[in-house]
Design a protein that fits this description.
Blueprint (H helix, E strand, L loop, with lengths): L9 H23 L2 H18 L10 H17 L4 H18 L5 H27 L5 H32 L14 H10 L12 H30 L1
Helix pairs in contact: 2-3, 2-5, 2-6, 3-4, 3-5, 5-6, 5-8, 6-7, 6-8
């Protein structure tokens, strides 16, 4: 075995490097294993900020404000860590991350997490529509809530599209969305965002995917159309 000056052995160094790399890769893979949960938690961060920035002082008194206060309280109960449901959500999510880090699949449990977060954004959609008809003193509130809501719906629909294809792939069935099977999260994100410019259900091959796509188009029309036009109208007025 050849040795370089100073006693440094290239082969021994290479073997140690390969051994270290071999032990590091499984660690990195394990850290990445809860990636789906991390992505879903991004929607929670925006949801929490949506709730915290909902300044009802900018809304004039009336029946709509009363409904907004009820919706706000309900959303706060779901997302606030000091509330029982919110505390349960944080505990549940932490357990899920630990399970994934330990190598457990927890497929149904992650689905339940996504359903809970979807329920949160449905409440936010209700709030957005209430803000449309509310006597708002300033357009700033509506614009801020709109900017916080856009990432939520895009990520949520991205997950639902991916989950439909992933679930059918696990059962060896044809994909629910044609041309998307086996693609990464970014392609599903673009598919969800595409509804903002060109709605088409031709690639959706199952009833469920067509319903989700239809809902995607409705939310886009509602949020980007009516809400944005209302915010501009308030700013001009």
């Amino acid at each position: 075995m050849s040795t370089s000056p100073g006693g440094w052995k290239p082969r021994a160094f290479l073997l140690k490097y390969l051994k270290l790399a071999g032990s590091t890769m499984p660690f990195i893979d394990r850290i990445k294993s809860p990636g789906e949960i991390y992505v879903l938690l991004i929607t929670f961060i925006f949801t929490e900020q949506f709730d915290r920035n909902l300044d009802l002082e900018a809304v004039e008194e009336g029946a709509v404000k009363n409904f907004l206060e009820i919706s706000h309280s309900f959303l706060d109960a779901l997302t606030n860590h000091v509330q029982p449901i919110g505390a349960g959500f944080f505990t549940y999510t932490f357990i899920l991350i630990v399970l994934r880090l330990s190598g457990k699949k927890a497929r149904r449990s992650i689905d339940l997490l996504a359903i809970f977060l979807s329920a949160c954004w449905i409440v936010e959609l209700v709030i957005m529509n209430l803000l449309l008809v509310a006597p708002i003193k300033s357009p700033v509130l509506l614009i801020i809530e709109l900017l916080l809501f856009i990432p939520i719906i895009l990520i949520c629909f991205t997950w639902w599209y991916w989950r439909m294809n992933h679930g059918r792939s696990e059962r060896n069935l044809s994909p629910a969305i044609a041309g998307m099977d086996g693609l990464g999260a970014l392609e599903y994100f673009f598919f969800a965002a595409e509804a903002c410019f060109d709605y088409s259900g031709d690639s959706c091959k199952t009833s469920t995917s067509k319903i989700v796509r239809l809902l995607n188009g409705f939310v886009v029309l509602d949020v980007f159309g009516l809400t944005l036009s209302r915010a501009v109208d308030l700013a001009i007025g």
